[in-house]
Amino acid sequence: MTRICIIDGHPDPAPHHLIHALCDAYAEGAAQEDHAVSRINVGSLDFGFLSTPDDFATPPPEPMLSERRKIADADHLLIAFPLWLGGMPAKLRAFFEQAARAEFFLAASDSAHKWPMQMMKGKSARTVISMGMPGLVYRFGMDAGALRALERGVLGLSGFGPLHHTILGGAGEVDEAKFKRWCTDMRIFGREAV
Q: Which residue spans traverse the membrane (predicted)?
């Protein structure tokens, strides 16, 4: 059994969005193998933006404190979001900033010459990004910027590994067959906890 935390990064909590359906399918697959699943629905949370280094140094208030415990307890993360203006939605970015407060992802080293301590060592992650443009255009034409920033930044620096990702291009015009195929893929990922 793997403990999985699903981070649904769509900022709109309305149920009709593709990202919500993909997260549901992943959770269904995980349940088929009796993996323990917790969920963080970023669009349903109420939190502000960080403005000062002093804020970043202190623990976050609720509900963020409780939500990030789900990350701490998990062996594997699924992070899913739609691409907006070439990056992750601002609310998801703000979520990660809030979650990272008080050395949650990275902690100061006990030596002046060492790399910060990676607080997420031993955890794996998959990122799923949906977008209107073709996936190949995003991957090669735009250099997959948001994905690279997340994988090399928050996830990589804090010790997550291995890292997997799924880029779903053409999400603006998804027919029934493609939607079913994507949900089937997500159920498989959920069952395998990857």
A: none
